[in-house]
């Protein structure tokens, strides 16, 4: 499958994350990534930045292999997948405060 834009890709990305437990693993990983990034900046202990991809992708991939039973989109669409992760996380955070996101998101093409 070839996608011409992120707007075309995102519905596919969401379909690959149908299991709520898989999405939860993504949210945990993304939250930890932000916490580690903040910690590294605050303490200026830059070696912590090395952990970010392992934390982010580790939790996401565990969700895919353990719950979704599919191959992460990162393997075929790395840039769109990374962007999709953060858009999905943003939608999750917005839903916590009662904001319903528009579909599809207006994102760079």
Plain-language structure description:
- By secondary structure, this protein is mainly α.
- The protein has one domain (7-97).
- 65% of the residues lie in helices and 0% in strands.
- It is built from 4 helices and no strands.
- It has helices at 6-15, 20-43, 51-68, 78-96.
- Helix 1 crosses helix 4 (78-96) and helix 2 runs antiparallel to helix 3 (51-68).
- The longest helix is centred in the N-terminal third of the chain and has 24 residues, at 20-43.
- The radius of gyration is 14 Å and the shape is globular.
- The model has no long low-confidence stretch (mean pLDDT 92).
Strand content: under 5%
Helix content: 55-70%
SSE string, helices as H and strands as E: HHHH
Oligomer classification: single chain
Sheet with most strands: none
Structurally, how many domains make up the residues?
1
Average predicted local confidence, pLDDT: 92
How many helices does DSSP assign? Answer: 4
Assign an overall shape. globular
| N-to-C span | 17 Å
> What's the gyration radius in Å?
14 Å
State the total count of DSSP E strands.
0
Category by helix and strand content: mainly alpha
Low-pLDDT segments, ≥5 res: none
InterPro entries: Mpo1-like
Transmembrane segments: 24-42, 48-67
Pfam families: Mpo1-like
Keywords: Membrane, Transmembrane, Transmembrane helix
């Amino acid at each position: 499958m070839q996608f011409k834009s992120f707007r075309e890709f995102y519905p596919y990305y969401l379909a690959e994350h149908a299991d709520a437990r898989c999405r939860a693993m993504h949210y945990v990983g993304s939250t930890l990534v932000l916490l580690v990034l903040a910690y590294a900046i605050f303490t200026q202990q830059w070696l912590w930045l090395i952990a970010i991809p392992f934390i982010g992708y580790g939790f996401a991939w565990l969700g895919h292999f353990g719950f979704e039973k599919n191959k992460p989109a990162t393997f075929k669409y790395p840039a769109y997948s990374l962007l999709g992760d953060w858009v999905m996380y943003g939608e999750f955070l917005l839903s916590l405060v009662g904001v319903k996101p528009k579909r599809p998101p207006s994102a760079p093409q």
